[in-house]
Amino acid sequence: MSEEKKKEDPVKLHKDGNTLYELGKYEEAKENFLQASELYRKVNNFFDSTSMLYKAGECVYMLKDYETAVEYFLKSADLSFKKGFDRFGVSALGYARDCYKALENKEKVKEMEKKIKEVKEKLEESF
Questions:
Q1: 24 Ramachandran zone, left/alpha/beta (phi>0; psi -120 to 50)
Q2: Nearest 5 degrees, angle CA 15-CA 17-CA 18?
Q3: Domains of the chain: total
Q4: Which of 2, 77, 82, 106 has the fewest CB atoms within 10 Å, measured from its CB?
Q5: Domain CATH for 62
Q6: Contact in structure between 36 and 24 (CB atoms under 8 Å)
């Protein structure tokens, strides 16, 4: 597979990103996940796109870059909620809350907890 082809295959980028993550190569894994997210989004595969944003967030969380991690988790949550993947969105918000805890931003922690509670209540009402 040519190098150009690899850069256009979200599934390959996704798998390679997982391997890099397992090897502790978080920066490289993040790049793969972000690229895969964009490619998935271009073909309207929104679930995998949100998943890749989430995985990119996990990578930078492991690198202790909590501000960037929050950004990826919130993007993942936002897209998840827009596309009806509410449970996945709640998970992303939970990780964002953990980032805010690491940043010692109590106000944002409370904000995330409130939003998580609201979404969970909405989910329970739909059953």
A1: left
A2: 65
A3: 1
A4: 2
A5: 1.25.40.10
A6: no
Range of the domain at 19: 3-125
Query: 61-72: per-residue pLDDT in tens?
Result: 999 999 999 999
Q: Phi-psi region for residue 45, left (φ > 0), alpha (ψ -120 to 50) or beta? A: beta
Are 56 and 33 in contact by the 8 Å Cβ rule? The answer is yes
Tokens found for residue 54: 């989430």
The residue type at 59: C
Give the residue among 61, 22, 54 at the shortest CA–CA distance from 36.
54
Structure confidence at residue 6 as a pLDDT band (50, 70, 90)? low
Report phi then psi at 10, rounded to 5: -65, -35
Q: With the C-alpha atoms ordered 61, 63, 64, 66, is the resulting torsion angle positive or negative?
A: negative
> Nearest CA to 41 among 89, 95, 82?
82
Match 């850069």 to its residue by tokens: 7
